[in-house]
Structure formats: structure tokens, C-alpha cells
Write the C-alpha cells for this entry.
Amino acid sequence: MIGRALGAICLSLALLSPGGAAADVAPPGPSPRTTVVVFVVADDLPGPSRATTQLAVERALERNPRLVVEDKDIRLAQRSGAYDADAAQEARGLLATGEALLAKGRAADALVRLDAAAHGLEAALPFVPKRELARAQYLVGAAHAALGHADEARRTFVRLLTWRPRFALDPRVAPGHTVVLFDAARRAVASLPRGRVRVRANIAYAQAYVDGVFVGFTPTSKAGLPAGDHYVTVRAEGYVRQVAKVTVRPDRSAFARVELTRSPGRDAVDRAVAAIAPRLGAAALAEPLARLRERLDVDHAVFVAVDGASYTAFVYDLASGSRLARAEARIGDDEDPQRAFLALADALYTEAFRVAAAPAAVPAAPAAGRRRPFYRRWWFWTGVGVAAAVAAAPFLLPERRAAPSCPRDHVCGEVVFRVGF
């Protein structure tokens, strides 16, 4: 049963992988507010099952427009400096500027910036969405078309459609003969000979993607690829993801051999999760969750406990250390795994957002109990004593006018009582 469920989940992941089922479209408007990371807590779960479960939960949560599902190892790379976020942001800025110049008819100026943006985004591919690189390459081709460079525009579009066959032309940015040249490139790619890429990694059961589409766990391969350049992404829990650019030829297999390195700071994250696991489901886990927040800097952590075909998920708020929600799912032989995980994610965050939005409870005033009489209170008798001392002060502290003489061979002295406030 577990094998069949795993196979069904893998199929769902292939359909849900970026670029696997839908054409490239502009991302939705404003970014969602809540950042989330996912952990699968199950010591005896095999590597492929663990990875598949995590990916399935992440994909289901990504359907919620109020969430940003973060890759833990990318977060660690960003915070450690292993990922040059400034360089990626610079490439994005060049892309935006180039597109604006192209829209104004300044194709020559736009081409310089768009070409630089495409190279910068390709260098940052392990950490940026491939749709951004695809758009940059498309705009480079459109700029060539606007300048009358028909052959270069067509070659650029062929390179793009070789690895991103479902890319949709943007009619808003199609100067000159862009539409004609783009359609010609699509026909050319359809007639290209096919080849295969084989993917190997130094980590067993790492997740492999070809051109953004999940193809299996290493070692694996993908056939039927158009001859030309393709991007192979390899990722594994606890390691920095890598992207290899490979050239597919019809006469022999292309090989992508990827070396993954341990994510900086991941050991500290794993220790925090190990401290959480035996207490998972508790109402509060402030100390280990604070450690996770320090390392990952996200809002929520989702923990998924697996027991056979049963999946129990918990949402914890890392700032407060409190549990926000709990939900369960069971995937049987006749159930659709994708639908089950979508229902799990929906139930989980319907409750989590409801709890997070609820006003904090105001502590009730203590109930009025029977009070002791005032004459039995300590402060009453203390006050009485002080008042008595003050009343006696004139008698205890007589005014001293002159010191009396002391007879010879006697020892004389005086006793003075003082009351001070």
C-alpha cells in the first residue's frame, strides 16, 4: 500500500513541479505575508518517502496565497552568505530596467541590460526561480527582433524553448517581428532530435529536476529531451542545492554529476528539531522554536509526523513558541494523495489563521473573597505603635539646656531615646 501511495505522490509532484504543468505566467500580485518551513518527523521513514512527503506538503501549502513556503537550505545559504543575494537582486533590477526601456522603444539600450540580466540570473539559478531566467531570455530575443536581428532573435527563442517548451509569448512585449520569429522557433524545437540526460549525485536519493520538472531520485535519468542546453537541479534535505547546465545530444546520453555540500548551520537546525520531536503536539515549545527562528528567520514551522498511512501536521508560531493548529490525513489505496494533502494543508491553515487572528485573552480580575477585619492587619498595629512612640516623644526627649556637672570619682552618662521618621 505504501509503495502505491508513494508512486501516486511522485506522479502528483511531477504534475505540480514548476514548469511541469503550466505555462510561465507572471507571479501573483503582492507577496504573501507568512513565511513557512516544513519538517517531516519520522525516524524510520525511508529517504525517498521522507522527501516525497515533504515535497507533497510544501506543494499543497504553496496553493495558499497567504503563504510563502521557504526552502530551509536556501534560507541557511542566504543567511550565511553562501548565496549572493545582492548579485541576484542586481540582475532582477537590470531585467526590470531593460524591459521598461524595451517598452519605450529603446531596444539597443534595453538589449545591453537584458543580456546582463540573463547571465546574472543563470549564475544564480540554484536560488532564483527559473521563470525569471526564462523571461530574461525571452526579452533578449524580443530586443533582437526589435533591432531587426532576425537570426539572432530566432536562435535566442530556440534556446529558450528547448528547455522551457511551455513558455508563452507575452503579447504586451512583442516588438517588431517577435511573434513571427517566436512561432518559427517553436516549430524548429518541435522538429529537433531527442536525447537523454543521466543524473548522478554524491547523495543517495537526492531529488532531481530537469528544466524545473521533478524526474525522480538520484541516480535517475530523463529521456525525450530536445537536443540543446538544459538545466539539471539536484537538491537534498540538509544540503545546498546545485544546478548543472548540460548539453543533450541525440547520439549519446548527457551526464550531470552533481556534488552537494552540507548547508551551513544545518546541524544546529537538526538539533533543534530533535529536541522538538519527542514533544511534538505540545501547546508550547518556546526554547527549541526560538533556536529555529534564529537560524531560519521565518514565521511558522509545519511539522508532519508520519505513522504508516496516517499523517498528522502541526503549525507552530516561532515568535511565540505556541502551537496554532493540528490536522490529520490518511491516504488509503483508493485515495488521491494530491487531494488528501491539499485538504490537510487547507484544514491546517484555516485553523492556524483563525487562532492567530483571535484577540489575546484578558486575565480575569481575582474574585472578591472574605477579607480580614482591618484591626487584624499588620499595618494597623504597626501604625498604632508608631503613633504611640510619637506621642511619648516629648517625655522621652526633654530639651537639654546645659550638661550637669559630674561629681569627682564618679562616672556620669545619659540615656537618649530617639524616634526618627
In short: The longest helix spans residues 337-357. DSSP finds twelve helices and 14 strands in the chain. Residues 194-262 form a domain with the Immunoglobulin-like fold (CATH 2.60.40.1120). Residues 1-5, 18-29, 386-421 have pLDDT under 50 and may be disordered.
